[in-house]
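Tokens for chain A. Residues wanted.
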């Protein structure tokens, strides 16, 4: 609660303080008017109507205060003030900067600095990906699958040699971004022994030009006025309502199937080939983890054929891959997403993913 309170803006605190003071003082004045107008029925009716309105305003203020002080989570597209504050509270303290050169750097979220060059005998395992790998919605960084993998490898004798695990993921990134990070790392003389690209199915959106900005269209929903723009509950309610009337956004995930037909997938496949080749040239094993959409996982999961297609092509390209669908589908009855409005993997899903990765590549 105190963490959330400390991240409320001065403007919001001043406005809410004035509003709460007004709510406290309003009934006092109205009750005095009622006594003064006791024998004047028309005016008494005005007082009673005003008291009813005051009660409604109090009831509307309760969820706003609750969202401002207690509600701490994210949404899929990070649109709401609640979600943006979550990032300020839980992500910003762990954000670091990696400088490849004077004019090339990135931000990443991890509990230790990424080491470009080192002389010890530890292997460097690097995870690259988007918000799934970044841990969108996972408050404690140690609950992400990359950090869980690091702990398992450090606490067991499963591997033949010690492993250093790093995570340079960032929300909204894709395969082209991952390729660029690897190129910058190698160009700077950095060492990566194992590069794991965590593929979320909508990463292919970048290669489908007419629709690559589909999710960014949400920026058109900028809320008007203080009540919807600068509050927490009403801002959240505004965006939830907007999405109800946006058929394209409600069916966002269904568009992904289109992207794997024809040229978009061929372009994606070409970058996979190029990235794998770059890694081999620098004595780095390039691997792929396929992360399923979790909100409709189960026996009728509609993207299973796409998983097979990706796996088949990875095999043809001699890229070692892990499909997390079988491991996660076994737990489809559990809650695996952050919340009903955020389809990112929660702590339980990260736990399952970490175990599958360790079992696939690191258990003797």
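Reply:
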């Amino acid at each position: 609660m105190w963490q959330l309170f400390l991240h409320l803006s001065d403007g919001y605190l001043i406005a809410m303080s004035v509003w709460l003071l007004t709510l406290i003082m309003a009934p006092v004045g109205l009750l005095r008017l009622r006594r003064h107008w006791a024998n004047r029925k028309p005016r008494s009716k005005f007082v009673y109507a005003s008291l009813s309105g005051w009660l409604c305003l109090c009831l509307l203020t309760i969820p706003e205060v609750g969202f401002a002080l207690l509600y701490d989570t994210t949404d899929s597209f990070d649109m709401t003030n609640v979600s943006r504050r979550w990032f300020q509270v839980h992500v910003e303290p762990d954000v670091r900067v990696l400088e490849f050169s004077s004019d090339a750097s990135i931000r990443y979220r991890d509990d230790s600095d990424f080491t470009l060059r080192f002389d010890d005998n530890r292997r460097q395992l690097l995870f690259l990906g988007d918000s799934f790998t970044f841990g969108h919605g996972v408050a404690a960084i140690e609950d992400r699958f990359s950090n869980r993998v690091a702990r398992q490898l450090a606490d067991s004798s499963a591997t033949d040699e010690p492993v250093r695990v790093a995570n340079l993921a960032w929300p909204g990134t894709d395969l082209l971004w991952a390729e660029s990070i690897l190129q910058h790392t190698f160009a700077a003389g950095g060492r990566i022994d194992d590069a794991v690209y965590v593929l979320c199915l909508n990463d292919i959106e970048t290669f489908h030009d007419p629709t690559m900005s589909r999710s960014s269209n949400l920026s058109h929903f900028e809320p008007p006025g203080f009540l919807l723009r600068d509050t927490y509950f009403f801002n959240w309610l505004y965006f939830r309502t907007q999405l109800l009337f946006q058929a394209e956004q409600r069916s966002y995930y269904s568009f992904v199937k289109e992207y794997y037909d024809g040229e978009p997938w061929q372009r994606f496949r070409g970058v996979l080939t190029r990235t794998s080749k770059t890694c081999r040239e620098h004595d780095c094993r390039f691997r792929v983890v396929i992360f399923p959409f979790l909100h409709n996982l189960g026996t009728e999961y509609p993207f299973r054929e796409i998983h097979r297609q990706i796996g088949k092509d990875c095999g043809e390209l001699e890229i070692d891959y892990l499909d997390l669908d079988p491991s996660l589908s076994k737990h489809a009855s559990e809650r695996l997403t952050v919340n009903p409005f955020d389809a990112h993997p929660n702590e339980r899903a990260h736990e399952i993913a970490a175990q599958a990765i360790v079992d696939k590549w690191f258990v003797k």
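Residues 41-69 form the longest helix (29 residues). The longest strand covers residues 95-101.
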